[in-house]
Design brief:
GO cellular component, one term: plasma membrane
Largest sheet: 6 strands, mixed
Helix content: 25-40%
Subcellular location: Cell membrane
CATH class of the largest domain: Alpha Beta
Radius of gyration: 20 Å
CATH architecture of the largest domain: 3-Layer(aba) Sandwich
Membrane topology: Peripheral membrane protein
Number of helices: 9
Organism: Phytoactinopolyspora halotolerans
Pfam families: ABC_tran
């Protein structure tokens, strides 16, 4: 395990000279599964208060990187800092600052939605009444009130995604780390979730999300990182990374892999007339 010191602080531009560390600072993260090197010495800073998009092709290492960042997986080397706190040497402090929606989230699905949220709130040391109050507000905003007394195991995929997001929000974290938060979510619910996340970021929170949908990242994010092969290919402000083109064009240029069909699949282009 790396013994890297905490990242240096950076000015946040409040006019009084105050400084704070990045929301997330990843330093030399490495993770290997058997013969597959999923994350290969990845380093990355996520500015405090940013809406940060993480994009990459399938198998790029996005989910593994987020799992290493939030303490769900232990790195083979390197470390991650959450507002200057090492996820591995100071896990209680670091994780208290995080709200996490992992990919394939395993929930206590034999609880009702309301019970689950209250339970998660209590785990975060909210008193019972406050946990119940916040659970009711989250169920209402996410249009899950009618399902509050339904066991989570009986939720649809979209409902499960929303209750998972509610679990990430209930303790009012400083940083949200969300892996494909809009997957399986209907357009109306997606609009609500976007509003919640934009309000959170506007109030000074930091949002980190992974997504395969480039248009969504361009619409919502002000910073972005493109990763492939477990490494960062480009990172920075959205306009800087995409340059004069779209984010998708920049992504394809960096990642490669576009296939020119040429004369292939000619049988799909048979004349219908």
């Amino acid at each position: 395990m790396s013994t890297d010191s905490p990242p240096s602080v950076h000015p946040q531009g409040n006019g009084r000279g105050a400084v704070s560390p990045p929301a997330l600072a990843l330093r030399g993260l490495v993770k290997q599964f058997d013969d597959t090197l999923a994350v290969a010495g990845l380093s990355l800073d996520v500015p405090t208060g940013s809406f940060f998009g993480l994009v990459g092709p399938n198998g790029a290492g996005k989910t593994t990187t987020l799992s290493l960042t939030t303490g769900l997986l232990r790195p083979d080397a390197g470390t991650a800092f959450v507002l200057g706190h090492d996820v591995w040497s100071d896990p209680v402090t670091a994780k208290r600052l995080l709200g996490v929606l992992p990919d394939g989230l395993a929930l206590f699905d034999r609880l009702t939605g309301a019970q689950l949220l209250e339970y998660i709130g209590r785990l975060h040391r909210l008193d019972r009444e406050l946990a119940r109050q916040r659970a009711a507000e989250l169920l209402d905003v996410l249009d899950l009130t009618d399902a509050g007394d339904t066991l989570v195991v009986d939720y649809s995929a979209g409902m499960t995604k929303k209750i998972g997001l509610a679990c990430a929000l209930i303790h009012a974290p400083r940083i949200l780390v969300l892996d494909e938060p809009f997957e399986s979510v209907d357009p109306v619910s997606a609009t609500t979730i976007r509003s919640i996340l934009q309000s959170f970021a506007a109030s000074g929170g930091t949002v980190v999300l992974s997504s395969h949908v480039m248009a969504l990242v361009e619409q919502m994010c002000d910073h972005v990182a493109i990763i492939a092969g477990g490494q960062v290919l480009a990172t920075g402000a959205l306009d800087h990374v995409r340059g004069d083109g779209s984010l998708e064009e920049r992504f394809v240029d960096l990642v490669g892999g576009h296939r020119d069909l040429g004369n292939g699949l000619a049988w799909l282009r048979t004349s219908q007339g």
